[in-house]
């Protein structure tokens, strides 16, 4: 059984910072890309940022220059440092990862989500 568990959400004022973390655990053989998505009320889930196994980051234009993604392959974790937060960043943030279980099957896994609220 593979699972992703996020932490680090909360309430912050505009201009502030938060750091999200996500840990993958269970019967894991390998992890490829890891990333973050978000879903605001009444909107579709959108991609925020991803990082390859080799550490190459990618960002949505809306967060470029403000968010930084990183990962620790030894710990099976991915983090998202969010700076200069704006009210429009308010959403539930979901961790996502492409994971190969020890049984040899690749799957696309999601965390349970963590709420980020930015007040104006």
Summarize the structure.
The protein has strands spanning 2-7, 10-13, 18-26, 28-39, 46-51, 57-59, 67-72, 77-82, 91-101, 106-110, 114-119.
How would you describe the overall organization of this protein?
The chain has 120 residues and is mainly β. Helices cover 0% and strands 62% of the residues. It has no helices and eleven strands. The chain has strands spanning 2-7, 10-13, 18-26, 28-39, 46-51, 57-59, 67-72, 77-82, 91-101, 106-110, 114-119. The strands form two sheets. Strands 2, 4, 5, 6, 9, 10 and 11 form a seven-stranded mixed sheet that branches. Strands 1-3-8-7 form a four-stranded antiparallel sheet, with no helix packed on it. Strand 7 and strand 8 (77-82) form a beta hairpin. The chain is elongated, with a radius of gyration of 14 Å. The protein starts with a strand and ends with a strand.
Key phrases:
120 residues; mainly beta; seven-stranded mixed sheet; four-stranded antiparallel sheet; 0% helix; elongated
Number of strands: 11
What would the average pLDDT be, to the nearest integer? 97
- Helix % is under 10%
Shape: elongated
Low-confidence stretches: none
Oligomer: single chain
The helix/strand series, from N terminus to C terminus, equals EEEEEEEEEEE
Radius of gyration over all CA atoms, rounded = 14 Å
Largest sheet: 7 strands, mixed
Look at the helices and sheets and give the structural class.
Answer: mainly beta
Distance between the termini: 41 Å
Tally of separate helices? 0
Residue share in β-strands: over 45%
């Amino acid at each position: 059984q593979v699972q992703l568990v996020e932490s680090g959400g909360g309430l912050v004022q505009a201009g502030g910072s938060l750091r999200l973390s996500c840990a993958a655990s269970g019967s894991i053989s390998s992890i490829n890309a890891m990333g973050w998505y978000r879903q605001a009320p009444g909107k579709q889930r959108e991609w925020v940022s991803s990082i390859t196994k080799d550490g190459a980051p990618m960002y949505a234009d809306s967060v470029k220059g403000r968010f930084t993604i990183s990962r620790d392959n030894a710990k099976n974790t991915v983090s998202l440092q969010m700076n200069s937060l704006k009210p429009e960043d308010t959403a539930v943030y979901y961790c996502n990862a492409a994971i190969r279980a020890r049984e040899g099957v690749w799957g696309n896994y999601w965390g349970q989500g963590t709420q980020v609220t930015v007040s104006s």
